[in-house]
Model the fold of this input.
Amino acid sequence: MSKDNFFIFKDVNTDSDYLPLITFKTINQKEAVENYIISEAKDFFINILKINDELIQIPYPNLITKQDFNTRDIKDFYNILFYDLDQRHSNSNRKLKINIKWGITFDEECTPIEVGYYNRAQDKIVYFDNRPNRPRIAYRRSHLNLMPYRKYGTIDINRIPIFYYLYFTFQEILDVIKNVN
Done:
């Protein structure tokens, strides 16, 4: 076998050593994928988690991975997650206002939570995205019979999520690109 160059290497400044970066051939592809991710995130937060508060998206190159917790300085986490901690609620109790942040990941280890619902007929929790007009494409390992739902993970303080990871697959990204003219 000969040595082939499967991938293009480009030195890009990211905060994590564990983030794969995706390059697009056209600006239309990039915008289509970004629009898809934003649409999915809005749908997830509003319709699944019922969070109507404003959420702050952390740029992908600044995200924290599971491995980063073992290798990066704690100040990095503060700068990414708590840079706005000095804000206070406007009501009389003057408690700190925690602005919820989110970002995407391609790493399933960051997203151990599965969205599910209780099916009375089957008397069990079902992990299936049953929202109307959802694609029934198995983005996850189809040989495991896992249905398409949005996996997610959180970083919590006192059991209160302050950051959400939303899991996307490369297949989802490719499907969006395939539909760009």
